[in-house]
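Here is an idea for our session: we take a single protein and study its fold together. To get us started, please write out a protein record for me. Start from the sequence, derive the backbone structure tokens from it, and show both lines together. Go ahead whenever you are ready, and we will take it from there:
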Amino acid sequence: KDLVKELKSLVLQKKIEESYELLKKEEKLNPDVAVRSSATTEDLIGASFAGQQETYLNVEGKEELMEAIRKCFASLFTDRAISYRQDKGFNHFDIALSVGVQRMVRSDLGSSGVAFTLDTETGFDGAIIINGAFGLGELIVQGEVVPDEWILFKEGLRRGFRSIISKKIGNKNKKIIYSENGGTKLVGTLKNESSAFCLSDKEVLLLGNWCQKIEDYFSNKYKRKQPMDIEWAKDGKTGDLFIVQARPETVH
């Protein structure tokens, strides 16, 4: 049995390395990737495991990639994760975890954030709430920075109007960027960054339309209204916007 497990592990490692080589051929260099965990029970009514397991950013090189993947799997059994499952009454061995490897969006040079297709405080589902800040998105997810905020009116978007009904600038006094030796580091934002919006109105409207389409897709899929919790990123090199994650909203 141990030999079979070891062989399966080696086959998996070879597949991962082959896929990483395909990315390398496209860029001619070791690509920098995000290594993200996704557990089977992350978004349940009454129990959200999102954020319980680890994510590693700006991972470069095969050895570093394999180590980050192992750490993602191991993060199922951190003190925090064990305590949460114990508190919620989940069996520790009934939860499975996959690891997603994504090419990094250079939002360390741009901006990133989250969007909800309803107001999480009131439950009003006629609005889209977009939050954003400069740098990688971990500080927003962790609640460590006051982000910029936009509120968009869904029905107006559907009719083709510029439906930003509110926008509020956050202090954005710090951000996470690439570290020179791999991984990330926390730095202070420049004065002109903290006093400026991290997205233009045009970009906000584009994101709003994307968020609405994502909600429509999953609502049709599940045959019921399905508000969404969405993560986005803007590449500071190219200026392109990306949706990097979408999952059912569980806060409200």
User: Anything to note?
Assistant: Helices lie at 2-27, 62-74, 79-88, 138-141, 154-158, 191-194, 201-222. The chain has a mean pLDDT of 89. The chain has seven helices and 13 strands. The two ends are 46 Å apart (CA to CA).
